[in-house]
Fold these 2 entries.
Entry 1:
Amino acid sequence: MTQDNNTNNQNIQILHSQLNDLLEEAKKISEEIDETNKKSREEIDIIHSKMNDSIAQIKQICSDLDQVDKEAGDELDALVLERVNELEE
Amino acid sequence: MKKENINIIDSKDIDNMKLDNEKIVNSEIERIGKKQTAGEALTPTEKALLFTVTGQQESAQKLKETNPVETKLDTTVDANLNNENQTRFDVMPERKKGLLGRIYEGLYKIPGVNKIVGKLEIAYNNIHINGLTNKERKLQEEIDEIDKEIKLSEKSREIVQSFIIDAKSKGAPVTALEKDMFSTARRIEDLSREKADLQEESQEQREKRDLYINKRNEVADKLINYYDEKIKPMEKELDNLQGLKSQLDLRFIATEITHKKQKTDLRDIEEKMAHIMQSWSEEGRSEGAIKKTLKDLERYLAKGKESIEKEKNKLFDEQAEIENDVAEANRLVALYKEKRDEFVRIKENRPIEVKKDIKADQSLKGVPLTESIFADKAKERLSAESYVARWNEYLQSGNNTESLKTTIDLKDFLETTKWSNNFVLDFEDFKKIIPAYYRSKGTLVNNDMLNNTLDKFYKEKV
């Protein structure tokens, strides 16, 4: 009877120990996941920020070109107006 | 009243316009019509002319039908002019405003016409203002007519002169003949003066036209030069963007593969836990003694899964956003490059070219996170170190018949992917990470060739 109890207790201890090992393993993986996400996030944020800078730079150039378009468009309007005036006189 | 409804040209004004170019306009319309029927692309000026002529006919007809009293000039043109030009426009006679309306109307009414390209094209190709004008042509015709008359008068003077000589030799009176000759000489003088005036006027017209052409070319050159200057840094930024996007694609894929492995690890724990619990219940024990441990274990498993899922969704959204941003940047650069090419084409009077659709360059698109195109591959699992070693060995071996020989630096590969030496992955993942890795390093590798090499590598080495 005592031997049976001892065996049972041993089994319980083994199961307990196995469960604790699994718990430690799960904790470790959970930390790994957090670490993976953290590192990934840091890198993505840096790259994304650089990409945003590049896109902003491109948009700024587009805006400069739009301004040149506007000025050139006004000059062409003035030329065409002048020309139409000359033609019909 | 809506703006487009105000845009009406008085039919009376149209009738009163001196359309000296009517024949040319008609032949132009005929030519454009044929071009359109043949399915050829029309230039903005051609579209504008076609639209203007047919549109005005319809507008005038509609006006007569609906409101014969109210007549308003085209307000589309002045609404699009800057203040300075608007002041010039305001003081123009109505018929000139009408002419300008005819020239500009299509530019502002046809959707999709690029205004600056359209304006440049008008300045270069519009039949009213380009090349030898009708006024110049008329002046030249008048000069030619006067020339003919001068020649005739001179001939006449020569004949009278010979009559006078003949009459004098015969002693006949010459007073009337001399009077006639004097009158012819006066006529020649008058005609010569008239011719000189017309030539001067014609010269002035040519100078004005040349001045216009010079100014117009200056504007075109300024545009082209400025675009040339700005497109280079734009393309450089786009290359930079592409490089950064490749790095991000690699990061997305590496994270996805890492998550996949972590999910497998979590699943293994779950299976082991289930196995332990089964043994526990077979012993007839209650869960009371291990309740806290179980709860903690379940909490960590759930937390791990949730973190992965949350990050996965975040990455998915982020990737879609980046795809859009890069596609938009690519579209913008293509748009301005196309405009620059259009300026050059118009200046050189080259025919319009068939344009490539400005869409996101497919090569810029990364591999979607959800895509699993390698599902048919066996799930051989090796460490990252082992894969790279085998891959490098295969690339340098005689078995590799493809031209890809660029081996991978293990240290850099592990640093870039943030994996450990013994990080285990299957071939499906290896095949996914390799193209992304090469792209992120700026190594130009043909996708088909890389896939072939990977497939052969898989058969021989894995």
Entry 2:
Amino acid sequence: MNAQHALDAAFRESWGRIVAALIRRTGNWDLAEECAQEAFVEAVRKWPADGVPQRPIAWLTTVAGNRAIDRLRREARGAQLLEQIGHEADEESMFDEVEEIEDDRLRLIFTCCHPALPMDGRVALTLRSLIGLTTAEIARAFLVPEATVAKRLTRTKSKIAAAGIAYRVPPAHLLPERTAGVLAVLYLMFNEGYSASSGEELIRVGLCDDAIRLARSLRQLMPDEPEVAGALALMLLQHSRRRARLDDNGELVTLEDQERARWDRAEIDEALEMLESALRRGAAGPYQLQAAIAACHARAATAAQIDWPQIAGLYALLEAQMPSPVVRLNRAVAVAMAGDLDAGLAMVDELGTDPRMARYYLLDAARADMLRRRGDPRGAADAYRRALPLAPSEAERRFLRRRITEL
Amino acid sequence: MTIVGTTRFSSDGVMSSDAIEAMNCAFPAWNEKVKDRRLFGRELDLPGTASIVRVRDGEPLVVDGPFAETKEFMAGFSLLDCADLDDAIEVASSSPVAWHHRIEIRPFTQGVRLTDRAAAFGRGDGNPYLLISWMREPRVDLASACDRWRDDLTARGLYVLGGALGGADTATTISTRDGATKLQDGPFTETPEFIAAIDIVDGVDRRQAIKLAATHPFAGTDAIEVRPFYTE
């Protein structure tokens, strides 16, 4: 195997594990990251000349562990710590058997995503310590200055230490709530990447892959949590449409008008199977419901075959679990698409009185679409024009203008 | 073991008498449930009873009123002895206070000093005063001066408990609504100043408490708010 290729694979496979295990052993996040970093730098230096070691991950793990021990020996407090953990001599035992290391990754993800941490810090720390993105890469992915990310990371790590956030998988009674918290971080990461398009925004698009990878590991580590499967299925279903979201001119294409042949069938099949077995457990949470809605679109061979009554029903269930005006708006759209335009419009009109929706352009866009379907082009055009100044991006404004001319 | 100081804040919104009664009824059960972790707690007198003490060019300047003119205010204080933040969150979020108000949790990062007077304070005795150090920038350079100040007050039998708190970045604010715990990163008040230390003194009257505050090392650089605890 080519050294660069082996390095990339080893990095993806083991960065998070090495960092996670070193944090548990030393309690020192900076030391863990720096030693993992040094191990990879060493690999970059040695592998091309000496050849890729037979067990690359074990090699990296040992080097990182040795570096950690060297550093700790140099500091008085570190020496004390080493004595405490009783591993003065035996370098290899800095890491123990595989299961423990798997648990470490879970400890790490739950700690990074602790709800007492600032949200931007949770996301940055997860990307840094589990995926191994550098500060500069995170900064580019979130379109913020590097110094901002550096500050977020420092601040988040110092809160973990000073406020006493334990490095552990939460106890059973906290697990459902905290798992939802981890999934929220991953889904935010995914959406951040998904809202970016392509080309120069490739790093942002990479966030989708990172989020999916983390969700995959989480699912491996917690196979009995249906919401974890639900969140992964949801991300895969959205991700499967990435090549159809924009047309050749870079314009946004609505779900209905997307060229279905461009959807990633393998991802859809994987997601549908996963979702089905999760739903069979009988307690569908918000991620499973959202995935089930996305699945209705994925299953339909053409836009005309979408099962809108089913989608409307799923949105009703979702609204009962997480009441929000945006969910209600989506439900209204599904109701209208299922054939009951009047009921859909009535729901949209009612939402129009909600102050939270006052600046939400999709409300007027949805109303416009319903009016158009009801044969009221004048009303539709008015509604599109009201939506126009509220649309946040140029692509969305172009889309609305196109709709007006199509009327 | 992390020792965490919990400061309890309440809004000035009017609570119905039913809500107050429900809260009061639930207190004994909560006290019993968390007694191993909540060493003690007391209610403060209203913010209107506060004074702010500064010393500039050797001259003490005293003005009336609480330091932060916010709608919500510090209404009480609890000292928790918890294994970690989750443990402290559990204690705070199960408090009846959290049903209507918000609770801010902050660690005593340098440890907390407890004197012989602490037990009486916990029983609700005496006429204790809370000295709150408000500042804009952390002042680690004054840490040992603060320690000496506490040593001196302890030797004079006036010190109850206190110490330096972790910065605003270490705070977590908690409330419980409809049975769900809401956590928020950061302190309760969004003022440019943050609470850097709290010290409780007793065995003095109001005038003397203000004089003690003027000897606090932070009085020379920042501001000390002096608030009496509520007494029957």
